[in-house]
Specification:
Removes the phosphate from trehalose 6-phosphate to produce free trehalose. The chain is built from seven helices and twelve strands. It is an alpha/beta fold and 245 residues long. Strand 1, helix 1 and strand 2 form a beta-alpha-beta unit. The protein starts with 15 loop residues before the first strand and ends with a helix. 42% of the residues are buried.
Length: 245
């Protein structure tokens, strides 16, 4: 069955709450998480958007918060990291992170796999662990097999993305993070829009749609819960620039 393409989103309205993924949405994907290049205009653009939306803007990323903030100044924004496992409100209040008891054992198993495939990138997070195999695609089967086995234990869910497999805490996802932020007084009553590119963003697309909002897919057409689509990171930047005016 052919996949129906989606139209571009309408101009950003002043009554929305805007939530943005980071990698593949605001910055181009790179071979390794630390190899990204953050556009010089991005911090000022986000500030302008926050001013136009009365502070109703947030970043919801798969990166750990500490890692995200090495690349982007998130002060003044609501921000979620580790696929919803970490959450900090716009006033700086951080909510506690629940760490599965089996995380230490999972890290040991993943490190052992990385000795077999030295080009794997292991990304340890406060409540989970991700394995990137973009540089060694022949390791995909071994990575998926191990991560699937580890996810069958207590506390974890396997989250697959673009050349990455990740263990995240059960009950933590980008949709849950969006719903939690929408309960904050600053966001309450607004229409949530979530912009993202990966399979990991589908939970947030569905969550936004469930509370009178919508998702915006970034990238080529695919089966998705999003309502609209933007072609790439450059198209996202152009749409945001228009919305910040």
């Amino acid at each position: 069955m052919p996949i129906t393409d989606l139209s571009p989103p309408p101009p950003l309205a002043p009554d929305v709450a805007l939530f943005l993924d980071f990698d593949g949405t605001l910055v181009e994907l790179a071979e390794a998480p630390d190899a990204i290049s953050v556009p010089h205009h991005l911090p000022r653009l986000l500030t302008r958007l926050g001013e136009r939306l009365d502070g109703r803007i947030g970043i919801i990323s798969g990166r750990a918060l500490a890692d995200l903030e090495r690349h982007l100044d998130c002060r003044g924004f609501a921000v979620s990291g580790s696929h919803g496992a970490e959450l900090r409100l716009g006033d700086g209040t951080s909510l506690p992170v629940e760490t599965p008891e089996s995380l230490s054992a999972a890290r040991i198993a993943v490190r052992a796999l990385a000795t077999r495939f030295p080009l794997l990138i292991v990304e340890e997070k406060p409540a989970g662990i991700a394995v990137h195999y973009r540089r060694v695609p022949e390791a995909q089967d071994a990575v998926i097999a191990l991560m699937t086995e580890l996810a069958e234990g207590d506390g974890f869910v396997l989250q697959r993305g673009k050349m990455v497999a990740e263990l995240r805490p059960r009950g933590a996802d980008k949709g849950a993070a969006l719903r939690r932020l929408m309960r904050e007084p600053k966001f309450a009553g607004a229409r949530p829009l979530f912009v993202g590119d990966d399979l990991t963003d589908e939970d947030a697309f569905a969550a936004a749609a469930s509370i009178n909002g919508a998702g915006i897919l970034v990238g080529p057409p695919r089966k998705t819960a999003a309502r609209w689509r933007l072609a790439d990171v450059a198209a996202v930047a152009a749409w945001l620039e228009e919305g910040a005016r």
